[in-house]
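Quick question: what would this complex look like in 3D?
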Amino acid sequence: MKTRITEYRKERKITQEELADAVNVTRQTIISLENGKYKASLVLAHKIAQFFGVTIEEMFLFDREDENL
Amino acid sequence: MKIKGIFCGTTAATNEEYRKIVKGRNKYMAVLIIVGIVIAAAAFIADAKGVAALPEYMLGVYAGAGTGIAVAGVILMVRNLMLLKDEKKLKESRLENSDERLSEISNHALKSAFGVMLIATLAVSMIGGIFYPILVKMLLFILMCFMLSYIVSFRIYERKM
């Protein structure tokens, strides 16, 4: 799944470590999310979106075909 | 890279919550140490007094297993005590144990490891069963235990979710 975490993070000059601390996950999880290797749970997606003050849809880009939507 | 322990998952969101969980885990470690000491002591006493009609090899197995369990309990207890004294390490440990990605990896690894264990058990019982038929009975017992516990656990979690 594609996300805009890297974009928002760099725009606000936040490190992966800082974001990981804020949403209570390891830095490796943030790296995997940014690389699209891992799909966040609804709770984590909500935490990340809330941290940046955007909606989940703005932060996580759902592929209609991949997600069978 | 560290590997998350199978039984180490937690939902603690703060160090304070996690501190209580680690303290609770140390109680289990104390029980583990006692169980290990009891097993090893029983084997040593039985061996020394010649009261148990067990083969020498099995006495060695009990003594070794008991000592191993007790030593593992001590190591884990000391590690937990060290964690409790260091806020930074406590936080690292909390994140590793509560991280959802690591939990998912652990679940996948468990499934794979279980598959391998099942194949290995099957192979051992089928080949070993030629020489020792008891191995086939053992496999059936293990499979029945697994299926039963899986069905019971599934029903319990089905009601919860």
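Answer marked as accepted. Residues 1 and 63 of chain A are 7 Å apart (CA to CA).
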